[in-house]
Amino acid sequence: MKNEERNEIQNLQQVNQPYDYLIVGGGMVAAYAVQGIREYDKMGSIGVVSTDMDVPYTRPALTKKLWTDDEFTQDQVPLDTEENGVELKLETAVTEINRDQKTVRLDDGSILSYDKLLLATGSEPIEIEGPDDDRAIFFRSWEDYRKLRAYSGNNNHIIVVGGGYIGTELAAGLIQNETRVTFVYPEEVLGEKQFPEEITKEYEQPFREAGVQMMNGKRAESYRKDGDKIIVTLDDGQEIEGDALVSGLGVSPRTDLAEESGLKVDDGVIVDQYLRTSDPNIYAAGDIATYPDEILGSNRIEHVDHARNSGETVGKVMAGSDEPYTYTPYFYSVVFDISWKAIGTLDSGLETMIDEVGEGKVVYYLKDNKPAGILLWNVEADLDEVRSILDNPPSDPSQLKGAIQEKED
């Protein structure tokens, strides 16, 4: 018997269980993919392999409601994925995909086989140089929330790094929970890369009024431990001492597994309108998928609305649906009394047109005299109207005035 044949037989003997649907990643994409599968296939076997220690959960609550809504508790965070007859393998990593044999190898050496495979590996946070320590939190998971919650309150001092979604929401949430906050971000004015000047002034003001120490125009270079404290060193040499550090410096898509298995990758895993990769039996959705958006073109989005909708669609497709992914997702944030939603490109370097709507604003980001992105600033409007304008914009940008109105209660 040849060595190759012997190895193949040995591999087959190691297969623990075949799955009709195997999902790599245990985030919101996985949870909604399971729901999509079950709409078309009530009985097919589903396995979910996740490096997370928790069952799939609603990620936005970790930076929003758990800090600002006393009636929202951690009991409401799980997404009840197990109720759909799913076998969950937590704190487990897939180390290799064998596309020819349609198997994956786990970090414990065991092998699982699949009929359809979904890659939903999400993203990993960008880190600052420093030692491993529970007080240095690169925020991404429910466990990160629990760590941060343990260090917050009691007038403790938390250093928040990064002026994006995670940083702004956590800085706002922490200051509202009896915590002293120093907020380090590279922009001279918070949000200046995304928002026009008129908006950034409104955005930064409530942080200052709430007592957040704003360290604008600064970057965190590294951190170190000092007893029971964390010392953060800034790019100008200044040092800040805190009880903990929480960082939201952005994320990078976890595409290593796809690349190593030979799938087409360019920024993200390349998929078609059915969220299929270059292998017809392997799909990708959520943060890692670069997909053809009908309005925005080739796109990769790291936001929850995309996770939900791409997850549900890919689940249906894997189970037999011929429904393509035609949805253009929105993204949003809530800090203090400010709520905003957007679709498309938010780049303050573009020409902007601001329309006063009720007590809020609609901002149109213009490229070649056409809207490339639309921001709803404290405006509750029909998002399908926003998509329609992006898809079929007027020939004259002045006609955008009054095009979007606030929803009636």
UniProtKB/TrEMBL annotation:
The keyword Oxidoreductase applies. Pfam families: Pyr_redox_2. GO terms for cellular component: cytoplasm. GO terms for biological process: mitochondrial respiratory chain complex assembly; programmed cell death. Residues 390-409 are annotated as: Disordered. SUPFAM superfamilies: FAD/NAD(P)-binding domain (SSF51905), FAD/NAD-linked reductases, dimerisation (C-terminal) domain (SSF55424). GO terms for molecular function: FAD binding; NAD(P)H oxidase H2O2-forming activity. It comes from the Bacteria. The keyword Phosphoprotein does not apply. Residues 19-311 form the FAD/NAD(P)-binding domain. Keywords: FAD, Flavoprotein, Oxidoreductase. PANTHER family: APOPTOSIS-INDUCING FACTOR 1, APOPTOSIS-INDUCING FACTOR 1, MITOCHONDRIAL. This is Pyridine nucleotide-disulphide oxidoreductase. It comes from Desemzia incerta.
